[in-house]
Design goal:
Rossmann fold, pyruvate-formate lyase- activating enzyme
């Protein structure tokens, strides 16, 4: 499989960024003498001819959306090239391996640190050996996630679509080209709903600073004006993170960046926020999830609703926009607390901080979820839904399930029609209040909201 095209790596979705999962794996394979084709179906076509040439196809599924799209790729590959060896890799690969293996749709899955096991799998198949490799889950070998440290090398991006094909940073009327990289893998926290928890179990790995900086340098050379750090939590290792930022800013003082940081860490390391601003931080994403303390306790988030309010104040004082990701539909959220969530963002003049899609997100329970090991979950988790790659559950209050469906349809339509995000927010609030049997004027609320903030954000909404 040394010839061009015999190995095909496919990315389905990486949050609107050039796919790191292709760049990192491609670098290791090329170091070993292979010439993989790389295709990102988020921005380019995967041809039948590319599928026919491929003997080995690796499909990156780092998140649920990527898995849904990846299934379509798998079905197409099996129809065109049934003899190809298909390997899923990424967070959602191992969680869903049994489902795909039982149907004969894939041959292997790799969770955790994927580069080395996948490269070993390719080498074994090249020599027609039975691939019983640690970290590779197959019908012959039920291996767990690979948590051996990867010998990181600089990702190779020259075979990927140009950065201009991906989401931009929008700040007022200015659009900037965005690159993306990782400074760490895994996470030392174990939030109950997070897919990282069953794979990494509280472990994380720091990628060497020089590797991260070299990746940033090559993306700046290719036109990047802003960098997204895709770490699950950029401040799992704050010293490591800040050292990278200092060197990056010294070399590229005009380069801006964003990162994901837990509310808990924003409070703990608040003294670093002014420094982050000086180094070019445009905004921070944080998994707020809910403002219902009962929900936050069940999710083991490590913060409270009061902590969220403090974090917004700290970030505003530092001059950095805080963009929350939300999980407002869980078994513990109530209609009253959902309305209270909306009231918080309206009353504190924070609606511009939210991507409307986050008002619709519903809890996913993938195979391996930490919720499945909680004895209390048996009261609300039902059977597995193979089409959704998640266990079914329904809310004790049927109004919440009805509301979620309506909100999801509303925000999807709003995205497709490029509707005003503030109007979408108030339409969502009108839906929620109507569930309480009350009336609400969206146009009056929009008029009364006052002056809008102009905040930096990516042109593609973040969702899992």
């Amino acid at each position: 499989m040394r010839n061009q095209g015999e190995i095909l790596l496919v990315s389905c979705y990486e949050l609107g960024h050039q796919p790191f999962h292709l760049a990192s794996l491609s670098a290791l394979l090329r170091q070993e003498g292979y010439q993989p084709d790389c295709v990102d179906i988020a921005v380019e076509m995967l041809s039948d001819e590319q599928i026919r040439r491929a003997e080995f196809i690796g499909i990156a599924v780092p998140m649920h959306t990527a898995l849904r799209l990846g299934e379509q790729v798998i079905q197409r590959v099996r129809a065109i090239q049934p003899g190809a060896h298909i390997c899923l890799y990424g967070l959602y690969a191992l969680l869903n391996a049994d489902h795909f293996l039982q149907q004969g749709l894939i041959d292997a899955a790799i969770g955790g640190e994927y580069e080395v096991p996948l490269c070993q799998l390719v080498q074994a198949l090249e020599h027609e050996k039975q691939p019983l490799i640690e970290g590779v889950y197959s019908r012959q070998h039920t291996s767990g996630p690979n948590l051996q440290r990867t010998p990181f090398i600089v990702p190779q991006r020259e075979h990927l679509p140009e950065l201009t094909n991906y989401a931009r940073l929008q700040w007022g009327d200015t659009l900037s080209v965005v690159g993306a990289t990782e400074a760490t893998r895994g996470c030392k926290h174990t939030c109950m709903h997070c897919p990282i928890t069953p794979i990494y179990g509280g472990r994380f790995f720091a990628i060497p600073r020089d590797i991260v900086l070299d990746d940033i340098r090559q993306q700046v050379a290719n036109g990047a004006q802003h960098i997204t750090f895709n770490d699950p939590d950029f401040w799992n290792g704050p010293t490591h993170a800040m050292r990278i930022l200092h060197t990056m800013h010294q070399e590229f003082p005009e380069l801006t960046f964003d990162a994901t940081i837990k509310i808990e860490h924003i409070l703990k390391h608040r003294e670093l926020l002014p420094e982050m601003k000086t180094l070019g931080c445009a905004f921070v994403v944080s998994a707020v999830e809910s403002l219902n303390d009962d929900v936050l306790m069940h999710l083991d988030k490590g913060h409270t609703a009061e902590d969220v309010a403090i974090a917004f104040t700290l970030m505003e004082e530092a001059g950095i926009a805080l963009r929350p990701s939300l999980l407002p539909f869980t078994p513990w959220e109530t209609l009253e607390s959902y309305v209270a969530l909306l009231n918080f963002f309206e009353e504190h003049h924070l609606i511009e901080h939210i991507d409307p899609v986050h008002l619709s997100i519903r809890l996913l329970i993938p195979p391996g979820s930490a919720h499945l090991s909680d004895p209390a979950s048996q009261r609300w988790i039902a059977d597995f839904d193979p089409d959704a790659f998640s266990y079914r559950w329904s809310h004790a209050d049927p109004r919440m399930d009805e509301l979620q469906a309506k909100v999801a349809a509303l925000v999807t339509q709003g995205e497709q029609c490029q509707n005003d995000a503030l109007m979408t927010f108030f339409q969502v609030k009108a839906l929620a209040i109507s569930m309480q049997g009350q009336r609400y004027s969206t146009f009056r609320a929009l008029r009364q909201y006052g002056e809008r903030k102009i905040l930096p954000h990516l042109t593609e909404s973040w969702f899992c």
